[in-house]
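Hmm, what's this shape?
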Amino acid sequence: MMLLRRPFFSSYKGSSFASSSLCAVDDRRDGGGAVAEEDDDRWSTMLPELMEEIIKRVESSEERWPLRRSVVACACVCRHWREVTTGVVRPPLESGTITFPSSLKEPGPRGHPMQCFIKRNKKTSTYYLYLSLTQTFADKGKFLLAAKRFRCGAHTEYIISLDADDLSQGSNAYVGKLRSNFLGTKFTIYDSRPPYSGAKALSCRTSRRFPSKQISPQVPAGNFEIGKVSYKFNLVKTRGPRRMMCTMRCPPAQTPIIDEDPKSTSSPEAVSRPVVLKNKAPRWHEHLQCWCLNFHGRVTVASVKNFQLAAAAVDPSQSGSTGDEETVLLQFGKVGDDMFTMDYRQPLSAFQAFAICLTSFGTKLACE
């Protein structure tokens, strides 16, 4: 019997999603690493109605981190508590909150953007994604994901992980990667788990399948292509910012909260069509003599890396097709020497938004 005592954010250092109460439960393990059966029975025999009422009150009273760690602790008590918690806690699309690791691969909020920021370490070529806890740029934030840049022959790869200290593709915390061409103008985004049933993983020796205990223990991890990002060449060197286009296979609107059964993974028909995003064209400000976009106070430093992505225009002849060129689905901009803001919303997930933003780092002589 698999009991989730340490599946959420126990690998995080410093800003772990696990609470002290969760750690206390972890200490009651037997010699084989499983929690003693009598301890599990003690918690699981509680009346389901009482369990649900407890979790509802915890959920409603702790909307923001760091207090939200108690919701994670409730889900880690035993299997029955986990089942009740998954039925109470709403996904980011509805609640606007990130609770479990799987929330990082679920669509963002519908009505407002999820505000995050990225810290860069140039010396180690690492990037850290944090959830903003306040409206200022001074808060420490809640650690979500980390990425490290590697040079692989003529290509560059960014390994994305749940663990800030374990950034390897063979790690249990591995959630996906980003791979670029030689010029750094075209990128492919890979997810560690299949986006739909029957999806084929990238077939190469370095992308072998391995067990992932963090996002979805029952689904073997690999590298499954979920999106592409390309930057348009600027051969005549005209003035202006970079022009980019993204094609993403976004997660479905309704997904399980913590773990999912591979038999119930969405079929290709159930997954929405790939979403095409384009950067919004800035306007030239004659007085300031620069290109300008309205970031609503979330960007304070002019940079060629700054961008806003919106849904590209679609063919109106296609039934059921929708497009909104005005709504910004992802914006990324500089606020310090090594600090950048990242705001995303539905249909993108935090993982996808982070991967797209990583493509903006680095010099692109062919595009500037």
